[in-house]
């Protein structure tokens, strides 16, 4: 599918957090930005007047908008940083330098130090983050410093050097901020247990610390020390909003390609995420037309080869949602949990959004093409002779045999045609007989269409199994329409589709658009029928009460109910109150009726 016009691209953007990328007519990246709501943010570029000449020039050059959907605003901020540094877009001014967001490092050494850093060094150290604010980093480090005594010196505290007395304790020891591991004043096991506790804090597990802070805040408030209480409250807010993990940046994941797929009857949509040093630096989705009903595995294998060649990827490992053959030189990983699983889910989310946008774009650009595709699919799936451009669906509604009614809903070109909906009171059937009721309404519907010379549908659907279908078929036979209109039944329990004279039902793929349209028809018929049934039942209930009174008609009943809201209140009203609504004469009739009824003999 060709790149649609900008107006179409804007209409189909999702209302999700993510990163957007603008491209010019030559496919060159112009700008990368982040958004809490992609649709609102991107649309604003094309609807507002821009004070900045730079932005005005850029907007004129935009020919294509790409985006990557992420889980949160924080992830969008981090991903924007990655992409700007990777692609250096012309119209981005911020974030082009070599600085990056801060991390908390637990150094790979004996008696590890814990400190903030902007540089990731591959020496086995642990890095947590990245953080979009140094405020969060400082709050976490303050919390750690307040709870645990850690060294800040950069000495090599090897066992041999400590034993030989190479170091002396410094001022930090005398101030009580360090326990002096350099002079063996603190055992290594104790220090390491503190480091393990710190790992839990930077991962976000600080329930105990939060409780401790709340108690301190309460104590300050009780002592009228409100500034101190506010200072601690600010710390609590930072910790409660802290996200320890990001989906888009993880230093434990190195150079990896991530692939996922969503598909329907005609196409597969494959998303590719490229990770370099643990950060997403590219997202690309392709649409693949199915030629011979290929499986998702076959499509994904083809896509992996094509995409890796197109982007010259040399990654030795790929993450995928299921087993595929990617060649001998590539390690295939199917993540089951944790960060690796989250990154595959992120890829799947982007593939899903891409598919939705393509459908929306197709409906806007070429609505008839979309209808033709669905109709052709329904013809094939349901084994029909013609495309079902006009479909009618019937549903019976009765509760314990009372007020039996039926509904007929009409879909034209896959969409509801509400002006053609019809409702039926069952006339010839006594008691709750769904089969006879179905036969009556199908007969009445098409006898009338024949008499009035109206167009007949290409497909009739009856809500029910073999019994209801047989009743519908009998009605068509009586009208001489058997074989001229296709008729099927759909059973609710397993979504089984029955054909006349065939004992084995058809099961459509749960993802099939044909099944979705049939379900929509069935649900719409049920809704329409139930609404009619309820209205009839309510009216029937009124008839038994008020309209049975001689001299009281439907209009009077409606006026009374508008004012009093219920029959019970009408019964309890005084003659004067009734007269104010319906006049003295009718008020007297109703008042005397209920007075006589309630007077003991």
From TrEMBL:
Q: Which domain of life is it from?
A: Bacteria
Span of the secretion signal?
none
- All copies of the UvrC family homology region profile domain together span 272-471
Which GO terms fall under molecular function for this chain's record? DNA binding; excinuclease ABC activity
Pfam families on file: GIY-YIG, HHH_5, UvrC_RNaseH, UvrC_RNaseH_dom
Spell out the GO cellular component terms annotated for this protein, sorted alphabetically and separated by semicolons.
cytoplasm; excinuclease repair complex
Domain UVR, chain residue ranges per copy: 207-242
Q: Give an example GO biological process.
A: SOS response
Q: Which keywords describe this protein according to UniProt?
A: Cytoplasm, DNA damage, DNA excision, DNA repair, Excision nuclease, SOS response
Concerning CDD domains, the annotation shows: GIY-YIG_UvrC_Cho
Q: Which residues form the GIY-YIG domain?
A: 15-93
**Presence of the UniProt keyword DNA repair in the record:** yes
| Subcellular compartments | Cytoplasm
Subunit annotation: Interacts with UvrB in an incision complex.
The UniProt family comment states: Belongs to the UvrC family.
State its role.
The UvrABC repair system catalyzes the recognition and processing of DNA lesions. UvrC both incises the 5' and 3' sides of the lesion. The N-terminal half is responsible for the 3' incision and the C-terminal half is responsible for the 5' incision.
- The protein's name in its UniProt record: UvrABC system protein C
Q: Which gene encodes it?
A: uvrC
């Amino acid at each position: 599918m060709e790149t649609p016009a900008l107006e179409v691209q804007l209409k189909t953007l999702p209302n999700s957090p993510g990163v957007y990328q603008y491209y010019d007519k030559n496919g060159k990246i112009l700008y990368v930005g982040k958004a809490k709501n992609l649709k609102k943010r991107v649309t604003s570029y094309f609807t507002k007047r821009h004070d900045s000449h730079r932005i005005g020039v850029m907007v004129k050059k935009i020919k294509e908008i790409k985006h990557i959907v992420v889980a949160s605003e924080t992830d969008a901020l981090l991903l924007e940083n990655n992409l700007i540094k990777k692609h250096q877009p012309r119209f981005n001014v911020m974030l082009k330098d070599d600085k990056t967001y801060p991390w908390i490092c637990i150094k790979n050494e004996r008696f590890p130090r814990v400190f903030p850093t902007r540089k990731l060094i591959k020496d086995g150290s642990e890095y947590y983050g990245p953080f979009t604010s140094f405020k969060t980093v400082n709050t976490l480090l303050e919390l750690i410093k307040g709870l645990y005594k850690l060294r800040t010196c950069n000495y090599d505290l090897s066992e041999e050097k400590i034993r030989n007395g190479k170091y002396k304790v410094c001022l930090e020891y005398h101030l009580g901020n360090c326990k002096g591991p350099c002079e063996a004043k603190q055992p290594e096991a104790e220090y390491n247990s503190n480091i393990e506790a710190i790992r839990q804090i930077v991962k976000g597990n600080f329930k105990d610390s939060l409780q401790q802070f709340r108690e301190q805040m309460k104590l300050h408030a009780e002592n009228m020390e409100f500034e101190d209480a506010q200072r601690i409250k600010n710390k609590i807010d930072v910790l409660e909003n802290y996200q320890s993990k990001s989906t888009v940046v993880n230093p434990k994941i190195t150079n990896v390609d991530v692939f996922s797929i969503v598909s329907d009857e005609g196409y597969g949509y494959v998303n590719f995420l490229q990770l370099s040093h643990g950060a997403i630096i590219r997202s690309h989705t392709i649409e693949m037309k199915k030629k011979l009903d290929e499986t998702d595995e076959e499509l994904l294998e083809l896509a992996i080869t094509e995409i890796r060649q197109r982007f010259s990827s040399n990654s030795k490992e790929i993450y995928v949602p299921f087993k595929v053959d990617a060649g001998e030189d590539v390690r295939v990983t199917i993540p089951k949990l944790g960060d690796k699983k989250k990154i595959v889910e992120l890829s799947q989310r982007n593939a899903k959004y891409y598919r939705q946008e393509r459908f929306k774009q197709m409906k806007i650009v070429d609505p008839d093409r979309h209808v033709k595709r669905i109709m052709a699919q329904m013809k094939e799936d349901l084994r029909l002779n013609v495309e079902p451009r006009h479909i009618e669906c019937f549903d019976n509604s009765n509760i314990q045999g009372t007020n039996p009614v039926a509904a007929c809903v009409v879909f034209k070109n896959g969409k509801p045609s509400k002006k053609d909906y019809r409702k039926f009171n069952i006339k010839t059937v006594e008691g709750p007989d769904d089969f006879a009721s179905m036969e009556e309404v199908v007969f009445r519907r098409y006898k009338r269409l024949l008499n009035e010379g109206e167009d007949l549908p290409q497909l009739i659907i009856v809500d029910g199994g073999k019994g209801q279908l047989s009743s519908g078929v009998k009605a068509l036979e009586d009208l001489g329409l058997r074989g001229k209109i296709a008729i099927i039944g759909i059973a609710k329990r397993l979504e089984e589709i029955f054909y006349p004279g065939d004992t084995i039902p058809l099961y459509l793929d749960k993802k099939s658009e044909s099944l979705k349209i049939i379900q929509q028809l069935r649900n719409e018929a049920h809704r329409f029928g139930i609404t009619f049934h309820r209205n009839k039942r309510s009216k029937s209930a009124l008839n038994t009460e008020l309209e049975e009174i001689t001299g009281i008609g439907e209009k009077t009943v409606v006026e009374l109910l508008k004012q009093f809201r219920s029959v019970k209140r009408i019964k309890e009203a005084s003659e004067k109150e009734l007269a104010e609504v319906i006049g003295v004469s009718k008020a007297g009739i109703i008042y005397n009726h209920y007075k006589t009824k309630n007077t003991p003999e």
